[in-house]
């Protein structure tokens, strides 16, 4: 009998935690520890290696310590988020005006837009950390700086987005649910995110599998606001079917 998607996720999380404690282990040891075949463990390790969590070394599986990345976010799913961002960059065309919200995943798209002639408006200070491109104009919203998250909030930031419309808005979130919509855990960013979505021609949500089906504290948009969802191949097929039923184009990045 095939394992459920949730069971696979749970096992892979447990496998990563086990290796984090031991640092190294053999395929045989992991197979016995989790009571699955060596083939299953190899497949799990291959996926986790692609996510940058593990690596092979002299016949053993080695845990990879997670370090602070180039924009200051300690995130074990960082390589996966890079893949989502790269996929999103393929949907951006020359001449477009782009809104990017405070999400670390959404702002990563700037890494892959070096050849695009676009205008970007964002309240995300991480945008300043990416390589400069003479074809891209980046406008920061202004406003009060939230130093903990390196984003701008408040009335000035809100009014910057209130007076413009974008062709495309790139949104990261804490949760995407077919009932509760797009949500965030940050009250100071919620109003700005709502305005970004409201003033957009097309809304693209970037959300890895851990965000799908979840709801956070503050709703910033309904499920009907989402035009395209970019996620990964770990995503629960039942959730994907619900999003597609709501008319959302779902793009799953293989990992």
From TrEMBL:
InterPro entries found in the cross-reference section: Carb_Metab_HTH_regulators (IPR050313), DeoR-like_C (IPR014036), DeoR_HTH (IPR001034), NagB/RpiA_transferase-like (IPR037171), WH-like_DNA-bd_sf (IPR036388), WH_DNA-bd_sf (IPR036390)
Taxonomic superkingdom: Bacteria
Keywords carried by this UniProt record: Transcription, Transcription regulation
Gene3D superfamilies, per database record: 3.40.50.1360, Winged helix-like DNA-binding domain superfamily/Winged helix DNA-binding domain
Coiled-coil ranges per UniProt: none
GO molecular function: DNA-binding transcription factor activity
Domain HTH deoR-type per the UniProt entry, residue ranges: 8-63
The protein's name in its UniProt record: DeoR/GlpR transcriptional regulator
Organism the protein comes from: Ligilactobacillus murinus
Organism phylogeny: Bacteria, Bacillati, Bacillota, Bacilli, Lactobacillales
């Amino acid at each position: 009998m095939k394992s459920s998607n949730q069971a696979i996720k749970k096992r892979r999380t447990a496998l990563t935690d086990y290796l984090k404690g031991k640092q190294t282990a053999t395929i045989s040891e992991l197979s016995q520890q989790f009571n699955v075949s060596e083939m299953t463990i190899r497949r799990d390790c291959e996926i986790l290696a692609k996510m940058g969590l593990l690596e092979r070394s002299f016949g053993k599986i080695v845990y990879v310590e997670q370090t602070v990345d180039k924009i200051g976010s300690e995130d074990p799913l960082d390589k996966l988020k890079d893949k989502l961002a790269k996929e999103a960059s393929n949907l951006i065309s020359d001449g477009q005006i782009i809104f990017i919200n405070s999400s670390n995943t959404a702002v990563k798209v700037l890494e892959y837009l070096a050849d695009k002639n676009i205008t970007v408006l964002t309240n995300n200070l991480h945008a300043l950390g990416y390589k400069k491109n003479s074809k891209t104009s980046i406008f920061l919203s202004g406003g009060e700086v939230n130093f903990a998250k390196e984003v701008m909030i408040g009335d000035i930031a809100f009014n910057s987005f209130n007076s413009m419309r974008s062709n495309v808005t790139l949104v990261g979130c804490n949760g995407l649910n077919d009932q509760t919509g797009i949500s965030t855990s940050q009250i100071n960013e919620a109003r700005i995110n709502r305005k970004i979505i409201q003033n957009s021609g097309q809304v693209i949500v970037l959300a890895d599998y851990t965000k799908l089906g979840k709801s956070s504290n503050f709703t910033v948009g309904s499920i009907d606001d989402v035009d395209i969802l970019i996620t990964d191949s770990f995503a629960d097929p039942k959730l994907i079917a619900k999003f597609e039923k709501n008319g959302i184009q779902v793009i799953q990045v293989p990992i």
